[in-house]
Amino acid sequence: MARPDKAAAVAELKDKFSSSDAVVLTEYRGLSVAALQELRRSLGQDATYAVTKNTLTQIAAKEAGIEGLDDQLVGPTALTFINGDVATVAKGLKNFSKDNPLLVIKGGVMEGRLLDADGVKKLADLESREVLLAKLAGGMKANLNKAAYVLAAPASKLARVLGALEAAAQEDPSKIGGAGAPVADQKPETEEAAPAADNNETAAADAADDK
């Protein structure tokens, strides 16, 4: 490959490394052209499966700020660039490798972090984006239904709840946060000052008796 062609290939790989949600490295040694075509179709539109030269991949990965791929770039290597549902594509690779043992998952990169083969297979065990979105939507719908039920409750039911709360507060104000003690239990300040007044009257009477 001429130098300008190598530079263009490196630039393209670098761009794919930078723009992809994840990249999975596989060994394809022994797979037929027909098998590779079947693999590409099975991965769908969220992935691009490309056979590359290890030396160019090493340069492109480093230029994209990815270090540590050298150990995985041994032997014939193909790159799966994923732009979309990572779990679904990883599941596709894992399932294809079961039926075609010649496809070996080496590892990959996701969000700048290196993955070994087991890490990629764990991604395959995750639920797809569609399933997660469906569960999220289901949970939101359930919460909205609960809120709608409360808002649609009859006014008579709300009045009964408030009436019961008022009756409970009159019986025991401590049931209402911040209510404090019942008014009847609170002694007015004038009653606390009364004993002092009685003492003054007694002292005045004793003074009159001494005269």
From TrEMBL:
Protein name: Large ribosomal subunit protein uL10
Pfam families assigned to the protein according to its UniProt record, in alphabetical order: Ribosomal_L10 (PF00466)
Keywords attached to this entry: Ribonucleoprotein, Ribosomal protein, RNA-binding, rRNA-binding
Keyword RNA-binding: yes
UniProt KW Zinc keyword: no
Entry's Gene Ontology molecular function annotations: large ribosomal subunit rRNA binding; structural constituent of ribosome
PANTHER family linked: 39S RIBOSOMAL PROTEIN L10, MITOCHONDRIAL
Family assignment from sequence similarity: Belongs to the universal ribosomal protein uL10 family.
Ranges of compositional bias, category Low complexity: 193-211
Function comment: Forms part of the ribosomal stalk, playing a central role in the interaction of the ribosome with GTP-bound translation factors.
InterPro entries per record: Ribosomal_uL10 (IPR001790), Ribosomal_uL10-like_sf (IPR043141), Ribosomal_uL10_bac (IPR022973), Ribosomal_uL10_bac_type (IPR047865), Ribosomal_uL10_CS_bac (IPR002363)
Cellular component aspect of the GO annotation: large ribosomal subunit
Region (Disordered): 169-211
Organism: Enemella dayhoffiae
Gene Ontology biological-process entries: translation
Self-association state and partner proteins as the record states: Part of the ribosomal stalk of the 50S ribosomal subunit. The N-terminus interacts with L11 and the large rRNA to form the base of the stalk. The C-terminus forms an elongated spine to which L12 dimers bind in a sequential fashion forming a multimeric L10(L12)X complex.
